[in-house]
Every structure is written in structure tokens, then in C-alpha cells.
UniProtKB/TrEMBL annotation:
The keyword Chloroplast does not apply. It comes from the Bacteria. Keywords: Metal-binding. This is Cupin domain-containing protein. The keyword Ligase does not apply. Pfam families: Cupin_2. It comes from Agromyces aurantiacus. Residues 50-116 form the Cupin type-2 domain.
Length: 131
């Protein structure tokens, strides 16, 4: 083994707080969207499970890490910098670190999307905070 190798011995002992996080525990306010902050659950990633009606979506913002979207149902128009793309059920899209972005449900029904943050915590800077 060289000095750059890391070894890990597997174990059968899971932490006592590891397991399922109920959806209700992740709900944001009275809406249907849920927020999972990885650090709170021993995970290295965080996510939003979005459940938006037509016309809904977050304002323009950016992150100090990449974000990946998986469209589970519906149609999203995603703005990345000056680009606009459309993602539909089954599509995956990624925005690079530091690029202003937003999305909106442009379909006729619900938009259900997993927004995966490559970070154990969610860090967002909103465009309207910079005015």
C-alpha cells in the first residue's frame, strides 16, 4: 500500500440515528416541497424534492457547488446563465458551480423534481439579495 491509499474496514454497526427520514420531517412550511440537508443525516449530499404547480419555481440564485436536477414528472424550463433549456420527465440536467440559475414549471400539471446539491449543506445566494 502506498501513502496515497486510504483503507476502510467495513462494519456491521450502523449508527443508531441512521435510517429512514420521514417525508413530513423534511417538508418546508405548508407547501409540498421538501428539503434534505445531508449534514443533519450523515450524508455528503443535500437535496430539494420539488412538487410545484404550473408557473411555480424559485427565483434566480447560485451555489458554490454544482446542482443536478432529475425530473420525475412534468416539464421544467431551466435558466442557466443566459441559456434556457427544457427538461421533461426522465431528463437530468446539471448546472455548474457559480452559475446563476432558476427553473419554472412550464407544464400543465405538477412538476416533481429532485434537485441534488453536491454538498452536505445547502448554500444559496439569491439575485434579489444583491440589489
Amino acid at each position: 500500500m502506498n501513502a496515497a491509499e486510504i483503507t476502510l474496514a467495513p462494519t456491521m454497526q450502523a449508527p443508531p440515528d441512521a435510517g429512514v427520514v420521514p417525508a413530513e420531517a423534511l417538508r418546508i412550511g405548508t407547501g409540498r416541497t421538501r428539503r434534505f440537508v445531508g449534514r443533519e443525516h450523515g450524508a455528503a449530499v443535500s437535496y430539494f424534492f420539488v412538487d410545484n404547480d404550473p408557473g411555480q419555481g424559485p427565483g434566480l440564485h447560485w451555489h458554490p457547488y454544482p446542482e443536478t436536477w432529475v425530473v420525475l414528472e412534468g416539464t421544467a424550463e431551466i435558466t442557466m446563465g443566459e441559456r434556457r433549456i427544457v427538461a421533461r420527465t426522465g431528463d437530468t440536467a446539471t448546472v455548474p458551480t457559480g452559475v446563476w440559475h432558476r427553473f419554472e414549471n412550464v407544464g400543465d400539471g405538477p412538476l416533481r423534481m429532485l434537485c441534488i446539491h453536491a454538498s452536505a449543506v445547502i448554500v444559496q445566494t439569491w439575485a434579489d439579495e444583491e440589489d
